[in-house]
Design a protein that fits this description.
Helix content is 46%, strand content 21%. Strands 6-5-4-3-7 form a 5-stranded antiparallel beta sheet, with helices on one face. Strands 9-10-8-11 form a 4-stranded antiparallel beta sheet.
Length: 328
């Protein structure tokens, strides 16, 4: 128990040093998963061990922060933390995200260069062994594209509250110059810019690999005040945004165990059925991407609703059959 408390005190000190505005007692309790009284005791322990703690008045509350950061000894990363950082960089590079991988690799070098040589020498054998023992399985699918210059231009426009200008080329359509108010970027099997049309305010998505000559424009262009990127991303089954539907899927007993552990959608609910199967419900748009995903479940999943998903699935099946017949 004494060791557990020591870990909590050090972790709280790290969080106080990492926060520019500081932490309230309620935030400390939430971060440490303890009650308010326990948070007070942890705070007092940090105050005793770290004289540089600063109390900040933020009516009606108070905040505490550690100015100047912590020492290298107190901040030394663990083997598990370093290997996860290494794997994250490897995963990005394996999927074609060289720019984002380089940023994580640079962070890894900075962390190691700030560590004491004795600590780094102690961790090195374990890190080398785990790097050899773990790898990333790359799945088939679109190859994401997000080079450093493009991401830098997008981020500059977002931070500068300026429009973003680029040439966009859709398959089968003539490329044209666009000027939008950037809202953010969604990274996934393919990477997308989320932006608002400067005239209508309509939110649109643009694949990064179809964008070229990207640069911040002149003037001011901000995302709609009520726009929330996380809410926008959670509305769709994948990336494509269309009408939001109530989806009901029925999974056979043979696929129930896997379905219970599957992340279908942020709004999902899963209910047991009398026959041993499960019923999955969620609200989402993107019926085409959902239909593509349901192909991977074979005959283990049946569509109860909506009708539009059934129609889309029937169309995809017909298209696949036509392609097979043509190649026969």
């Amino acid at each position: 128990m004494r060791h557990d408390k020591a870990v909590l005190v050090i972790e709280l000190a790290r969080r106080m040093a990492a926060s520019a505005e500081g932490l309230t007692l309620d935030e400390m309790a939430r971060e440490a998963c303890v009650g308010r009284r326990s948070a007070e005791r942890l705070r007092d322990a940090v105050l005793m061990l770290f004289p540089s703690v600063e109390e900040v008045s933020d009516p009606p509350t108070k905040r505490w922060r550690i100015r100047g950061g912590l020492s290298a000894f107190e901040q030394a990363p663990t083997t598990a933390e370093l290997i996860e950082l290494t794997k994250a960089a490897q995963g990005l590079r394996a999927t074609g995200e060289a720019g984002r991988a380089a940023a994580l690799e640079s962070l890894e070098r900075k962390l190691k260069s700030a560590m004491r040589s004795t600590t780094l020498n102690r961790l090195a054998p374990d890190l080398e062994a785990l790097v050899r023992a773990e790898t990333i399985a790359v799945q088939a699918g679109p190859r994401p594209s997000a080079d450093e210059a493009m991401l830098a231009a997008i981020r500059e426009a977002i931070l500068g509250l300026s429009p973003l200008e680029f040439t966009y080329a859709r398959p089968g359509a003539e490329a044209r110059r666009r000027s939008v108010a950037p809202c953010g970027v969604m990274f996934g099997r393919a990477n997308y810019l989320v932006a608002a049309d400067r005239e209508s305010g309509r939110i649109q998505t643009f694949r990064l690999d179809r964008m070229s000559a990207v640069a911040p424009g002149e003037g001011v262009a901000t995302a709609p005040a009520e726009f929330d990127l996380n809410v926008f991303a959670s509305q769709s089954f994948g990336i494509y945004q269309d009408e939001i539907e109530d989806v009901v899927l029925r999974v056979t007993p043979g696929g129930a165990a896997e379905a219970r552990g599957w992340r279908w959608h942020p709004t999902q609910t899963i209910d047991d059925l009398p026959d041993g199967g499960v019923e999955v419900r969620f609200r989402a748009s993107g019926m085409r991407e959902l239909a593509w995903h349901l192909f991977t479940w074979g005959d283990q999943v049946s569509i109860v609703a909506p009708q539009r998903l059934k129609t889309v699935m029937a169309g995809e099946l017909a298209a696949a059959k036509a392609a097979m017949d043509a190649s026969a």
